[in-house]
Design a protein that fits this description.
426 residues; alpha+beta; Cytochrome p450; three-stranded antiparallel beta sheet; 20 helices; 51% helix; globular; binds protoporphyrin IX containing FE
Length: 426
């Protein structure tokens, strides 16, 4: 299994590269050979066992004792001493949050911090998301051409995230630099020189997160999930620990907005390249919820996640040693024809689209999934209503090379403002 055999599948396993080539172009397609021939294989270049089939990925998510999430936020590229020194100079001590916490600590924490995420408590966010979306659209609707990422899809999820968390909306540009650095630091393959620059950004992000917590502590009546977290930290410091609060403050900003921004960009790109689907949604907005699920299945923003085996195990017929590090590729599982008929076909009418693995599965399943979904739905509702004649502009798409976070850096779209429905039917 990737240990120097001569069969074609072994050669593919040996050649597998998570940071360049086919996996960066299309992770699901890049692992088609694996789904068919070797669904669990060791990648010598990555040092991880890659898992590509739907059922195996789900089985890994389901057993978070045997397959611990403790390595989910580890730096996937080993860091140089210089970068480690740079991080240490900021007192960097990123540790367990929620997503990489083991039981029983994880469930105890998740339970006391769940309230804000329940659908009935998210209803109040709808109007805000719609208002923000409309404001952004008002600013570009007469222009005829815009980069949707810059103009809307980055900032709205960030503002929504900061509002949900109760974090002051400081400096959006600074947060953006920090987020990219955090993603590269955790899931990317920076060169040794880049590592040092990234370490300085991540170190500053860490300190910034600490400052934000201090400011929030000074407002004991503050609203939002992180304020609640800070109050619970005072009430039950064994469950909601100090280390958790600081680590989470940094991780959640990325978890809550980068995921949603990228998923939304993937959604518009895919729908506009499948014009029939776009036109169908414009004609019948009740198709939107399932279209969002199909987009999350077909082109989700978290394409792979990590686990670590705590004991010897067998997965997909392969024996794994204790300590095996796994890269479970949801983008591949989501197109596995063993679970989704014609899995590589985009179909907004698919009746099991919602069974995708893009939010994970089981006890760690994304707590913010209904916020992400709500934002994606509102974006689609507003855009299909006000710009049904939108089309994708000619462009070369670029992506940040990394194992897990996927979405185009820019998404240029065009339309003829003279044909805007709100002009022709005022
Ligand atoms: C966990 C994806 C939006 C908060 C996760 C996980 C994934 C994910 C893959 C790991 C699941 C697992 O280990 O089983 C996404 C995607 C999003 C999104 C694709 C948007 C489209 C959000 C938002 C928030 C959020 C908006 C918060 C406001 C969290 C938290 C966890 C998590 C707190 C940890 C849950 C736990 O370990 O118990 N998300 N996420 N996510 N996500 Fe999201």
């Amino acid at each position: 299994h990737g240990t120097g055999g001569t069969c074609p599948a072994h050669a593919m396993a040996d050649a597998f590269d998570a940071f360049e080539g086919p996996y960066q172009v299309d992770p699901a397609e890049a692992l088609r050979w694996s789904r068919d021939q070797m669904p669990v294989f060791f990648s010598p270049k990555l040092g991880y066992w890659v898992v590509s089939r739907y059922d195996d990925i789900k089985a890994v998510f389901r057993d978070n004792i045997l397959y611990s999430p403790r390595n989910a936020l580890e730096k996937i590229t080993p860091v140089s001493q210089e970068a480690m020194d740079a991080l240490a100079s900021y007192g960097y001590a990123m540790n367990r949050t929620m997503v990489n916490e083991d039981e029983p600590a994880h469930m105890a924490r998740r339970r006391v911090l769940m309230d804000h995420f329940l659908p009935e408590n998210l209803e109040t966010k709808q109007a805000m998301i719609r208002r923000l979306t409309r404001e952004k659209m008002d600013a570009f609707i007469d222009s005829g051409r815009v980069d949707l990422v810059e103009a809307m899809l980055y900032e709205v999820p960030l503002t929504v995230a900061l509002n949900f968390l109760g974090v002051p909306e400081d400096d959006i540009d600074t947060l953006r630099t920090f987020s990219v650095a955090h993603a590269v630091n955790t899931w990317g393959r920076p060169t040794p020189e880049q590592q040092v620059a990234v370490a300085h950004s991540v170190g500053k992000f860490w300190q910034y997160a600490g400052d934000v917590i201090e400011r929030m502590r000074a407002e004991p009546e503050g609203t939002g999930w992180m304020h609640d977290t800070i109050r619970k930290n005072a009430l039950m410091p064994d469950i909601v620990t100090d280390s958790y609060v600081h680590s989470m403050m940094m991780a959640i900003i990325v978890a809550a907005h980068e995921t949603t921004a990228l998923a939304s960009a993937n959604m518009f790109k895919t729908l506009l390249t499948h014009r029939d689907a776009w036109d169908d949604i414009c004609a019948d907005p009740s198709l939107i919820p399932n279209a969002v699920e199909e987009c999350l299945r077909y082109c989700g923003s978290i394409v792979a996640w990590r686990r670590e085996a705590t004991a010897p195990s067998t997965l997909g017929g392969i024996d794994l040693p204790e300590g095996a590090k796994l890269l479970i590729v949801m983008a591949s599982g989501n197109q596995d024809e063993r679970h989704f008929e014609d899995g590589d076909r985009f179909d907004i009418y698919r009746d099991n689209a919602v069974e995708h693995l893009s939010f994970g599965y089981g006890s760690h399943q994304c707590m913010g999934k209904n916020i992400g979904r709500m934002e994606m739905r509102i974006f689609l509702e507003e855009m299909t209503r006000r710009l049904p004649h939108l089309r994708l502009a000619e462009q070369d798409f670029t992506y940040l090379p990394n194992t897990s976070f996927r979405g185009p850096d820019h998404l240029w779209v065009e339309w003829d403002p003279a044909l805007n429905p709100e002009r022709t039917r005022p």
